[in-house]
């Protein structure tokens, strides 16, 4: 398990495990940290974001046949979000692929890195491709919130990026890269650099006005903004179109593992159930089944009680039940469009 490089210096109130990595759970107060994500700028050490590099002359062609999105036509310094499927079209993982010129950088959660690397290795047969996990060589600090770009500029980092852009720069003599997240509505950036510069980067961002946050506040924000997490909301039994993540799919790029199932669903026009938000009358556990008229019609996958005391959830529901009031354990549940208002 990857460990924090800041634990002794920043003295978070509590540590824990998040997406397969040792990370700060909370620094001061979850409500205060959530507010920074909602209205200001938050900074966090992204120990759970693993980096995998694909090199070799066949890397673009090979990877294009492995994931659901198009890397063949991806411009240098651009990224795409994508699923990795099995032959039955079930989701085995998710990642962002960044075209870096002479290599492709794959970013995923630490909890997925080992299984995805092993899966990729099995599919390299006669291809000139090498896969390497470089997470220990590349630290990552995230800045998130409506004032994230303002804080980056104040600290001397580039911030004029579009969604899924990545730019290389020199900051105080240190080589860094800044990547922009996928959402324009909820700005997020990651700074990548050699691990020995972690403290300097962190201190600069905090001095520029960023509030340190732990993964408990980040998890509340993830659920409120309607972003599914692999292993929690996206499971290996799920099909791509059920997850409502259409930006992960490309329908004209050519063959890839699982394409036949994805195309069959696409031509049919819909799936029987879909990913959505729910408002709840009280807290329930993730995994709680949704019931209508005594019949199971869905499932809760993530639950959060916001500092406002509003209880929200993510999960799946059958299309024909989406307009009904549902039962979830001892709670009532109503479908709510994503993202939530918070």
TrEMBL record:
One example of a Gene Ontology biological process annotation: iron-sulfur cluster assembly
Keyword Transit peptide listed: yes
UniProt-listed Gene3D superfamilies: Probable tRNA modification gtpase trme, domain 1
The GCVT N-terminal domain, residue ranges: 10-252
Any GO molecular function: transferase activity
Residues given in the record as substrate binding sites: 190
Assigned keywords, A-Z: Transferase, Transit peptide
NCBIfam families, per the entry: ygfZ_signature (TIGR03317)
Protein name: Glycine cleavage T protein, aminomethyl transferase
Organism of origin: Koribacter versatilis (strain Ellin345)
Organism classification: Bacteria, Pseudomonadati, Acidobacteriota, Terriglobia, Terriglobales
